[in-house]
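Whether sequence alone determines local backbone shape is best considered at the level of individual chains. For completeness, the protein is quoted in full, as a sequence line and a line of structure tokens:
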Amino acid sequence: MDNLEKFEPVLGPRFNTDFVDGREWIVARASKSWFVIPFISIWLFGWTAGGIAALTQFLGGEAQLFLGV
């Protein structure tokens, strides 16, 4: 009987289903973490800038594939 005291009821699904113009739409809202949103944005911007810089160096003929070559 101790397990029943630890039971937490489920609040409900985190998604909604709607019918719009004869089509079924399933919308699942994500939880927002206000630290993660700017962090991921800055991370992806840096990743993209580095990829563009590496690609321009490689296509421009200035880069070497390996350090020793």
Summary: The two ends are 71 Å apart (CA to CA).
